Amino acid sequence: xxxxxxxxxxxxxxxxxxxxxxxxxxxxxxxxxxxxxxxxxxxxxxxxxxxxxxxxxxxxxxxxxxxxxxxxxxxxxxxxxxxxxxxxxxxxxxxxxxxxxxxxxxxxxxxxxxxxxxxxxxxxxxxxxxxxxxxxxxxxxxxxxxxxxxxxxxxxxxxxxxxxxxxxxxxxxxxxxxxxxxxxxxxxxxxxxxxxxxxxxxxxxxxxxxxxxxxxxxxxxxxxxxxxxxxxxxxxxxxxxxxxxxxxxxxxxxxxxxxxxxxxxxxxxxxxxxxxxxxxxxxxxxxxxxxxxxxxxxxxxxxxxxxxxxxxxxxxxxxxxxxxxxxxxxxxxxxxxxxxxxxxxxxxxxxxxxxxxxxxxxxxxxxxxxxxxxxxxxxxxxxxxxxxxxxxxxxxxxxxxxxxxxxxxxxxxxxxxxxxxxxxxxxxxxxxxxxxxxxxxxxxxxxxxxxxxxxxxxxxxxxxxxxxxxxxxxxxxxxxxxxxxxxxxxxxxxxxxxxxxxxxx
Amino acid sequence: xxxxxxxxxxxxxxxxxxxxxxxxxxxxxxxxxxxxxxxxxxxxxxxxxxxxxxxxxxxxxxxxxxxxxxxxxxxxxxxxxxxxxxxxxxxxxxxxxxxxxxxxxxxxxxxxxxxxxxxxxxxxxxxxxxxxxxxxxxxxxxxxxxxxxxxxxxxxxxxxxxxxxxxxxxxxxxxx
Lengths: 505, 176
Hints:
The complex is a heterodimer.
Chain A: H1 7-32, E1 36-37, E2 50-51, H2 84-112, H3 124-137, H4 152-174, H5 178-183, H6 185-190, H7 194-222, H8 224-233, H9 239-266, H10 268-278, H11 280-283, H12 324-331, E3 340-344, E4 350-352, H13 354-361, E5 365-371, E6 377-386, H14 387-394, E7 402-410, H15 411-414, E8 422-428, H16 429-432, E9 437-443, E10 458-461, E11 473-479, H17 492-496
Parallel strand pairs in A: 3-11
Antiparallel strand pairs in A: 1-2, 3-4, 5-6, 6-9, 7-8, 7-11, 9-10
Chain B: H1 8-11, E1 44-45, H2 48-71, H3 80-100, H4 106-125, H5 137-162
Helix pairs in contact in B: 2-3, 2-4, 2-5, 3-4, 4-5
């Protein structure tokens, strides 16, 4: 068959320049908020295989991971300045286009027989690719085989990028989602655990960058006008026009980045709206994937570094409440003084002590993987009672739609990194009713939860990223609408920063 | 001068007093008046054994490629063969020392890479085994590998000195 360069292939090539460049820049933004990569499923301090920060490790640190942000330049990352939420918005908006485009491309490749341009039909292609590599090293440009659009090494490298690297980056991207990773928990472990998946995702990005550098070098080596004419017009007859048009196209992509960066830094809420239109339709589907993790006790973070007190290694984030009330609770060991209130849109408002919670829980526990939105993970065994059981006790009134969790923490008072406001989160009833959405009062069978991890009682919403797992829980309120609470976005970080209430990815 | 003889931490030599990052964020490599460090300062890879093996591998490639050229009928310039064999012997010693000891031999490796590059330059001025000089494609590729591997080693050496990578027995000593 005559392969040529059909129009859809040329369009896809141009779209990929946009998608990949946006994905790389927003990906760097996401990396910058926890700029460390690991080789095991834990994020044990000191075991990273790479770091991308110039910040010196803090002494006397209480694991305020928010302080580990590195604000990369907006020239490198999108949007830069350590704005994780907006970086995530761009990553997911672009991912929607990238994956859609890739699926359409694959369908067209196989539907039109064009797959032969990438997939070798004979083992001779591999032998020829070796010869081609030797030719390049000898400064001799190898010719394409008769009827083929590229030489063998080009064929194999393009095939690798489309049919190996891209599925791998999509797979490892999908498994960054707490909802997916915790629903398909066995696959997460088979892939090496969340941190290994994160590392592979990063290496895929490096793969794209290396490929792009070599690809551009080869285009120049083979003849810029000749090659760009193929990808612009589908033939080699107009090398000058091809070069000019393609260069203008590249300039437009650069302009698009400049506009997107400035727009994001100036109008974050507008980017949020775009995200909600493009991304929410498919992220809402993830509410159908309730977490169903059952890690072994041996998986608990800290075991692999032989620490007696494994809870030391369950990272925390944020500062505990600094009120006389909370400090008094802490001083008295919580047990006699702490009371969890459950009220709002329920038939039977109630308050429960830790002892009563323990009795109601009947020894129930779950060993689960915690996904911080910044990127760290820890595995811990939590004892507690499911929110669903508590709701059954309280009896939500007809029309109750959401559950609001209030913390003792006031961000402005307790954490120098943020502005004031009580920390709260709201979950839709579907998430609150999930089997592993838990009110926890014990971590790793070591007694009460430490202050850094949310003592005495905290929320576990295993399908969402970490900040929605509210710590230092004071009160639960069932409501029939959440959009009239504070700024109406469903939680503290949703209100003051740029995070979607749907944190299933 | 120890101020508090009763402090267990101070007696252990742990003294964080006056350490800025005990109380505030401390960033390194910032130039005066700049908010951010040079881009490459942000990259730190901590794979010491892999890096050590990689450095040894690159020198081994230089040695093997040089031996191939020396054994061929092609002489890049008069008396190139003894020089090529010197590079081969140095590469063998380098790899052996690198595998059998924990010595930091990376500057010596740079000498081998530099010698190999000089031989390549000599070939350009003389009669290098390029295809257009009558050499086979394979021999021309091997000849160019001596250059690419040498430049690769120089790049790795620079990254090592810059702090982007570390080779065993050294370590980045990440604290977190």
